[in-house]
Amino acid sequence: MAPTSSSSTLSVSAPPPPSPNPLLFHLRRPLIAAAAALAALLLLAAAYAPWRVDLPPKAALLACPRFYSFDLVREYHHDPDAFTQGLLYGGNDTLFESTGLYHRSSVRKVELPTGKVLAHHQMDGDMFGEGLTLLGDRLFQVTWLKNDGFIYDRHNFTKRESFTHKMRDGWGLATDGKILFGSDGSSKLYQLDPKSLEVMKMVTVKYQDNEVPNLNELEYIDGEVWANVWQTDCIARISPDDGLVVSWIFLHELRQNLWNSGNMNIDVLNGIAWDEENHRLFVTGKLWPKLYEIKLRPVDGPADGSVEKLCPKASFYR
Ligand SMILES: *[C@@H]1O[C@H](CO)[C@@H](O)[C@H](O)[C@H]1NC(C)=O
Ligand SMILES: *[C@@H]1O[C@H](CO)[C@@H](O)[C@H](O)[C@H]1NC(C)=O
Asked: Where are the transmembrane segments (predicted)?
């Protein structure tokens, strides 16, 4: 429906008549002048009232925006040799990080302000480190192309146990403080029992009826599971109960800026860490020399669009 002239929808009561008492009138003059100005403004608004008719329904105003870009808050040093596969905030301005590649895989504790590695565990050469999460004092880590995982004491990486799981292999891990969420590079999001590592539930992650493949590093944030989508600059925000993607975060500018400043050997965006206490969001990538604190900013996006169109594969493998 086209907007119609609708000054009739807004009725404005006329200002009160000036008091006949000259003294009182004098005293009340500023008040009356203000009221008259307000009335004039309201009349003006009424004259331009069509916008009032076209206000979206309240539900639309309250609905969560579906697309986000970001504002950069701060950037930090990140080890350019860290092939980041798991990242989380460990409190007190520290991060825990798991890195991949054969003979280069590790678990680390990193000082956020400097990027300095405070503690480091080198994994066996045949292990390719993947997702990492912290539940209580225990760091859970999965490995690529294997069903083997490790549990480290956050205070002492030499204290560790191993486990096996039934996901295809290990890509991402996250926790809500009770259970573990896992990904294996498919479109599946798993819920794992942290004691038995059994799969308790599995959902297929979808956006507008299309499966979202290549789910990688995970982070649990405010009831959602956020997932890096491998080889793209996108993070999918997933409702973990039904697997639906509720919104997308576009971060191509981060990689583009690194490229523009000559960092041609970087790999994909990967690694999301959330400082719940201070509401700080950190992201980085594999072999990225920087780690970024960002704030999300809602942006417009296409009403329809396949995942491939929204999040095209970044051309790393030229
Ligand atoms: C926090 O980190 C600082 C600097 O690394 C350290 O001196 C301090 O003991 C840490 N505090 C806690 C509670 O871990
Ligand atoms: C770390 O754990 C190992 C194995 O339990 C133990 O031998 C070592 O003393 C611990 N190191 C520290 C610094 O607590």
From this structure: 31-51
Token pair listed for 88: 């989380």
Q: Ligand 1 centroid vs 272 CA: distance in angstroms?
A: 23
What is the pLDDT at residue 37? 60
Architecture, CATH, for domain 62-310? 6 Propeller (2.120)
Within 10 A of 84 (CB to CB), how many other CB atoms are there? Answer: 27
Residue nearest to atom 4 of ligand 2 (CA): 159
Q: Break the chain down into helix, strand, coil percent, rounded to 5.
A: 15, 40, 40
| pLDDT tens string 204-215 | 999 999 999 999
Domain ranges of the chain: 14-53, 62-310
Tens of pLDDT, residues 107-121: 999 999 999 999 999
Of 202, 171, 88, residue with least CA distance to 135: 88
Alpha carbon distance 236, 227 (integer Å): 5
